[in-house]
Each structure stands twice: as structure tokens, then as C-alpha cells.
């Protein structure tokens, strides 16, 4: 039987990535390029789109070369429909529409959040976990129920990664490789805990007030030598991660699930993983997490999720291959998981779904 | 690929409804390529249809685009963004079309 192969494009934020995967989750290639801004600055839609414009075509060549495949062998072309920044999303969408016509291949539109979840599941082998999806643009606690990934808790304002990124700008930390990584390294040197607002509202969290508090008080505190930048990084991490662990635990109790999967860019933070692992073990469950190759936005996660949908008969006509800044995780009917529930009873794994 | 840009700003709105307009023509010398770019770019509608309008057509291997806007700045923004993705679409055909090399 011929293996099914998908080519996937991700460009919803400051990373542009092209990945090639097979249906059993094997990643044949997954190159990406990150738009890194100077310290103290964030990335803006126009400039980010320009970055993607410059790198997308060489990335496709590199992906095909590394995977050692030709366009003929590809079954479908997948792209991020949303959520994300409009102009950067458009870059991947336009290229996919052209390639689809050139190579006569079907298009599959993919939800970015769902792609993170599926990538995390296939890489870690987590079967039916509560998912904490934490990145620069999203913060959600998700669990699968009746055909969809349902959001049990989320941020009511900015994402946790956005809070960390913007705090890094207050300290003018480097954005290379990412602001979050540099906060994490600096936090290891922190000794004094600085009390910060702790904002959990039921199943939800809020980070904008914490960020405002940091922006308003940090410069003064540092000037008066009340604490060090490392203390602030440490205190911010401890506070926001504790909030995330709390709402994740609440969702676990609610859904009666024991395992947790962390996905998204903030998910490669080892301190967050450590705190979550402690909570999981206390509840008799396991933590599943991945490293920066899969946590951070990449093309393979889009390719894999698109291929799951394609193998279950889903396709996006060219005229409908739009992109959208807002696209909720629970808008997607996860058709590939409906099969899984029945095949589960036969003890089958997802990678074994047979296709003609 | 040859392209021609003609910008006209006419207060006497005869043909066009809105004050600011601009035309772009790209000669692909191929009906197939021009239609491919047309199909790829027609999917994305203008974000502010009450301020900017875009009309595209393909004939004789050429892609023609007509822009109309209520203010010059909307015309410029829309035109500039469009040229970026048009260039991307064209480059994609050049690099991944028939006879592509890796």
C-alpha cells in the first residue's frame, strides 16, 4: 500500500515553516525560519509577512530535498487557515493555491490550535489527555469530547506567551531564539520571590493585569535595587505557571482525565513542565510534553493534521481556501477522532487507519 | 513577465464610481499562468469593500487588475499589498512550475 504524504505550511505568527509527513506521523522534513526582532520590539503583521515572503519558497525546496520526494508523491497540500495574523497567514495560503493548481493536488485547510494538539498526541503517544495549549497568541485548556476539542478554560485577555514576550521587552532581553527561552534561563538565577497579582477566574485566567503591574513597577524596583531582573523572571514564571497548573487541574477533575499534554511555544519551558508533572503525579497521571522541534509552530503539524482530515475525506476547494484571524478550536469537527473511539475498542492505534 | 501600471486620478467620475483608481496589467504570455494567478488571488476579498474595490480579469495571457478607492491612502495600501502577493504567486509558478529543479 502506498504511504500517504502531505506537505504542510505554517505561517500564522513569526515562524514560517514547511513540513512533509506521512499518515503514521513520520516527519520526513520540517524546516522553518523565525523572524527575530531587535530586543525591546515585537513583531508586526506587515514586517512579518515580508519575512515570510522572502523565506517560503526556499523552505519548500529544502523540505522536498530533505524528504527526498517529488511533488508527484504528495497526496495533499495543507495550510494554516487560522487563527493568526492576517498578512502572514495569506503568504502560505497564496503559495498553496498556486501549488495546488500547478501540481494538481487537493488543498486541506487546517486549524492551527488543533494542529498543535494532533502533533503533540502523535509525538508523545498521549491518547486522550487534557491539553494545555500555551503560546504567544493562545492560552487554552482543551479536552476532546463528542467530536470536537472543547475549550474548558482559557485566557480572557492576552496569551501567557504574549505576557512573557512583552515582559522580556521591559527588560530588553534578546528575542533570539525566543524571549520566553531567555526569561527561562534568567529565571534559573532568581532567588527572591516578588509577590505578583494571581488572576484565576473560575476556569479562566487573565494575564494583562499582571503584565501592566510588571511594566509599572519593574523599572522602579530595579532602579532601587529591590530585586534583580532574574528575580522578576523567576517570580513571573512561578506566578503565571501556577495559574496554568491550577486551571488545568480543575479541567482534569471536571473531565475525569488523568493525563496532561502541553503544546504550543510556551510548552517547551521546562519549569512549566516540571510544575505540571508534579501536579499530574499527585493525581496518578502522566505529563506528556515535547521539545522545541514540535512545540513551536512548524509545518509538519499542519501537514499531519491536514492529512488526518484528508484521509477521512476532507478537502478544501480552491475558492474556499481562505484564511481568518479568528478560528476557534471548537469550530473544527475532529472527524479522525470519531473513528478512533470505535477503533480504540479494538485496541487499534490512530496510525493504523487504513487508506486505499 | 511584463507589467504596466497606469494610475489615474480623475475627479470627473465617468467610468468609475470612486474618485481614486489605478490599473495594473501583467503579461504572463500564457493564458494558463495568468488564470492560475487569477484563481489564487481572487479568493481573498478586499478587507474594506466600502472603501476599496478590486476587479480582475484575464485576457490574451494577461492579468488585468482595476482598483478603486474613496481615498488615496486606501488605494495605496490595497495596491501595495496586492503587488506583494502577486509577485509571490508569480515566483511560485516560476520556481515550481513545469521543469522545476530542486
TrEMBL record, chain A:
| Residues binding a divalent metal cation, per UniProt | 112, 116, 133, 297
State a single Pfam family of this protein: TsaD
Main localisation: cytoplasm
Name of the protein described by the UniProt record? Glycoprotease 2
**Cofactor binding description:** Binds 1 divalent metal cation per subunit.
GO terms for MF: metal ion binding; tRNA N(6)-L-threonylcarbamoyladenine synthase activity
Name the family the entry cites: Belongs to the KAE1 / TsaD family.
Q: Which InterPro entries does the UniProt record give?
A: ATPase_NBD, Gcp-like_dom, KAE1/TsaD, Kae1_archaea_euk
One Gene Ontology term of the biological-process aspect is: tRNA threonylcarbamoyladenosine modification
Organism this protein belongs to = Nelumbo nucifera (Sacred lotus)
From TrEMBL, chain B:
Task: From the Swiss-Prot or TrEMBL record, state where the protein is found.
Answer: Cytoplasm; Nucleus
The processes (GO biological process) annotated in the record are:
tRNA processing; tRNA threonylcarbamoyladenosine metabolic process
Q: Which InterPro entries does the annotation name?
A: CTAG/Pcc1
Gene Ontology cellular component terms for the protein in this record? cytoplasm; EKC/KEOPS complex; nucleus
Superkingdom field: Eukaryota
**What family does this chain come from, according to its entry?**
Belongs to the CTAG/PCC1 family.
> What is the protein name stated in its UniProt record?
Uncharacterized protein LOC104601538 isoform X1
State the gene name recorded for this protein. LOC104601538
Amino acid at each position: 500500500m502506498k504511504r500517504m504524504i502531505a506537505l504542510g505550511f505554517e505561517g500564522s505568527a513569526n515562524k514560517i515553516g514547511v513540513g512533509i509527513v506521512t499518515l503514521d506521523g513520520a516527519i520526513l522534513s520540517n524546516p522553518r525560519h523565525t523572524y527575530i526582532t531587535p530586543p525591546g520590539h515585537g513583531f508586526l503583521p506587515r514586517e512579518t509577512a515580508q519575512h515570510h515572503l522572502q523565506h517560503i519558497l526556499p523552505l519548500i525546496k529544502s523540505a522536498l530535498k530533505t524528504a527526498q520526494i517529488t511533488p508527484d508523491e504528495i497526496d495533499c497540500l495543507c495550510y494554516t487557515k487560522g487563527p493568526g495574523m492576517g498578512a502572514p497567514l495569506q503568504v502560505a495560503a497564496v503559495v498553496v493555491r498556486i501549488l495546488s493548481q500547478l501540481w494538481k493536488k487537493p488543498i486541506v485547510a487546517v486549524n492551527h490550535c488543533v494542529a498543535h494538539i494532533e502533533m503533540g498526541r502523535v509525538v508523545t503517544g498521549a491518547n486522550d489527555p487534557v491539553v494545555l495549549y500555551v503560546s504567544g497568541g493562545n492560552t487554552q485548556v482543551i479536552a476532546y469530547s463528542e467530536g470536537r476539542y472543547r475549550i474548558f478554560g482559557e485566557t480572557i485577555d492576552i496569551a501567557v506567551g504574549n505576557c512573557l514576550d512583552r515582559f522580556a521587552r521591559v527588560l530588553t532581553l534578546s528575542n533570539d531564539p525566543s524571549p520566553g527561552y531567555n526569561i527561562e534561563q534568567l529565571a534559573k538565577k532568581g532567588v527572591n520571590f516578588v509577590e505578583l497579582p494571581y488572576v484565576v477566574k473560575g476556569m479562566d485566567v487573565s494575564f494583562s493585569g499582571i503584565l501592566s503591574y510588571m511594566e509599572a513597577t519593574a523599572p522602579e524596583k530595579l532602579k532601587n535595587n529591590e530585586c534583580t531582573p532574574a528575580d522578576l523572571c523567576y517570580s513571573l514564571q512561578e506566578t503565571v505557571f501556577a495559574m496554568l497548573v491550577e486551571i488545568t487541574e480543575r479541567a482534569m477533575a471536571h473531565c475525569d482525565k488523568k493525563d496532561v499534554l502541553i503544546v504550543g511555544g510556551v510548552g517547551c519551558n521546562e519549569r512549566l513542565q516540571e510544575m505540571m508533572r508534579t501536579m499530574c503525579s499527585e493525581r496518578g497521571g502522566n505529563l506528556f510534553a515535547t521539545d522545541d522541534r514540535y512545540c513551536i509552530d512548524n509545518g509538519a503539524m499542519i501537514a499531519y493534521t491536514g492529512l488526518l482530515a484528508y484521509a477521512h475525506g476532507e478537502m478544501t476547494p480552491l475558492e474556499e481556501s481562505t484564511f481568518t484571524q479568528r478560528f476557534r478550536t471548537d469550530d473544527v469537527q475532529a472527524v479522525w477522532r470519531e473513528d478512533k473511539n470505535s477503533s480504540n475498542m479494538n485496541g487499534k492505534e490512530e496510525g493504523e487507519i487504513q487508506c486505499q | 513577465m511584463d507589467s504596466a501600471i497606469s494610475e489615474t486620478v480623475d475627479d470627473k467620475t465617468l467610468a468609475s464610481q470612486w474618485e481614486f483608481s489605478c490599473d495594473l496589467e501583467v503579461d504572463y504570455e500564457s493564458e494558463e499562468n495568468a488564470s492560475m494567478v487569477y484563481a489564487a488571488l481572487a479568493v481573498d476579498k478586499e478587507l474594506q469593500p466600502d472603501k476599496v474595490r478590486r476587479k480582475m480579469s484575464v485576457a490574451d495571457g494577461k492579468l488585468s487588475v482595476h482598483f478603486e478607492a474613496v481615498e488615496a491612502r486606501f488605494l495605496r495600501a490595497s495596491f501595495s499589498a496586492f503587488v506583494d502577493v502577486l509577485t509571490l504567486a508569480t515566483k511560485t509558478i516560476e520556481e515550481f512550475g513545469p521543469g522545476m529543479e530542486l
